[in-house]
Fold this protein.
Amino acid sequence: MALTKNQAVAILETRSRKSRWSNRIRGEFREVTVQIGYARVSTSDQCLDLQVQALWAAGCEKIFTDTASGAKPERERPGLMEAMACLSPGMTLVTWKLDRLGRGVKGLVALVGDLEAKGCQFRSLTESIDTSSPAGRLFFHLLAAFGQMERELIIERTQAGLESGRLRGRFGGRPRKMTVGKVESARELLNSGMPPRDVATNLGVSIATLYRWLPGSSRHGEKAGI
């Protein structure tokens, strides 16, 4: 059967529309990823309902929960461990807020790094953070940089404090039991003939400490038969 020019054009246009629609549908299915939800409260008095409802509404297929402090490591949060174990490459872990995943910068960066190593993404609903987007990845890179800067500042302040203390005659660590005054008193008592054990008792130190600070005191003990 012969087709007119108009009929042929109409058929080609119909096929073209079907092809574009098919490609669009396939593209939309490629963009849909499996989402696993995680909700957490710190105490049993708090309620998980608000978080869980938001996660279901966001399209999560499974939701894991914990009743534990956000400061606890992953191994002490069984719900988070189950959620991480459930994730496969291409999946996304979703939380209601960023602090539901963890409170410390170091812990957050480490968890997101673990997700990245598994080929997974992270999404926080309230802050609109999504590591599948350039802005989301940038956020965590900045977070990691600020965390590193914070650690370096703490080390710098600690070293400055120790140096300032040394200049004032103070040293870090446990306070010494044998002060300069006690050493002088121990030397005078030993020279007066007092047995080393009695000297140590009077000064409130062990005989081993006395011998360590005044090695010569052991000879006094030998003379006294101690």
Q: What stands out?
A: Residues 134-167 form the longest helix (34 residues). The CA atoms of residues 108 and 195 lie 61 Å apart. The chain has a mean pLDDT of 79. Strands lie at 35-41, 62-67, 92-95, 121-124, 129-130.
